[in-house]
Amino acid sequence: MTPGRAYLSSDEIRALSQRSNLWGVALVVHAWGLILGSVWVFTLWPNLLTFVLAVIVIGSRQLGLAILMHEAAHNALFRSRAWNEWAGTWLCGAPILADLASYRHYHLKHHRYTQTDDDPDLVLSKPFPTTRASLRRKLIRDVTGQTGIRQRAAQIAFAFRLVGETEGVSSQDLAQAFSGPVLGRAALANLLLFALLWVMGAWWFWFALWLLPLLTWFQLVLRVRNIAEHGAVQQCDDPFRNTRTTLAGPLERLLVAPYRVNYHLEHHLVMHVPCYRLPKLHRLLHDKGLGERMTTAPNYIDVLRQASARKA
């Protein structure tokens, strides 16, 4: 479960894996600060430009919340398991209609079986590389809300399907499904968010500045993130070849790849290293002469180029 032990000493792994409550609080505050700050800017200067920017920034931070939930799933967001469970469930997962416990079960299976036939995420990476036209259609469906609406409808449908029965249901279905408690937590979190956004501006802010980003920009950057991590890489058990790290710049980290999610190869080598220490792990691997073995991309534009390299 820790491929990095073949390349890193126990002391190196221990130092990299130190968690910080201060960092955890700062990351959660940063995500919500950018979300609420974007709403505040729109209330000060309500126009089309500030609205579009708010949708983009909020959608990217909704992905940020998903990434912080991912950190909590690895018990890497806070030092305390209880803090990870509470923050990962209520502050990160429930507002974006996700469930920490279901996600953890699904995601750890992905780590165990990365890029093999038993990987529950293989369905996301196997279609790539595809053609430019196919990728373009996928991205258009994402940014226009078609993907988001379909997936949210599937979550609700799964909830009815799963009442009293989980036999024969895939891990991917379970990770997306709304059970009663999950639906209740999501509804409560969004009711509180609805009230907060109403106080900040108007009742329709939840629809325009939360639901709309969740159905559009969030889906777009979620797909780009999924492609960057395992799309158009080798389907094998070599952790340097079945996962990609993308060297994101500041703008990409703001809009596409928050909280060092771009260092995905490093995360797969030692999955409990907190996100803010992944750049250090990246440098350490290079210092050990492993840089040539690593699958990397210089930016997300190059990732999309590789992912759409198949001839029509």
The spatial strand order of the largest sheet comes to 1-2
Largest sheet: 2 strands, parallel
Low-pLDDT stretches are: 163-171
Number of domains: 1
Radius of gyration: 19 Å
Give the total of beta strands: 2
From the N-terminal CA to the C-terminal CA, the straight-line distance is: 39 Å
Helix content: 55-70%
Q: In percent terms, what proportion of residues is strand?
A: under 5%
Number of contiguous helices: 16
Give helix and strand order, one letter per element, not per position: HHHHHHHHHHHHEHHHEH
Mean pLDDT: 92
Shape: globular
Structural class: mainly alpha
Describe this structure in words.
The chain is mostly helical and 312 residues long. It has one domain. The chain has 16 helices and 2 strands. The longest helix has 26 residues, at 48-73. Mean pLDDT is 92; it is low at 163-171.
Short key terms for the protein model shown above:
2 strands, 16 helices, 312 residues, membrane, two-stranded parallel ribbon, mainly alpha, transmembrane helix, FA_desaturase_dom, transmembrane, sphingolipid delta-4 desaturase activity
What's the topology here?
Elements: H1 10-16, H2 21-44, H3 48-73, H4 81-93, H5 100-112, H6 122-125, H7 132-143, H8 146-162, H9 171-176, H10 180-200, H11 205-215, H12 217-230, E1 245-246, H13 250-255, H14 264-269, H15 278-287, E2 296-297, H16 300-307
Parallel strand pairs: 1-2
Helix pairs in contact: 2-3, 3-4, 3-5, 3-11, 3-12, 7-12
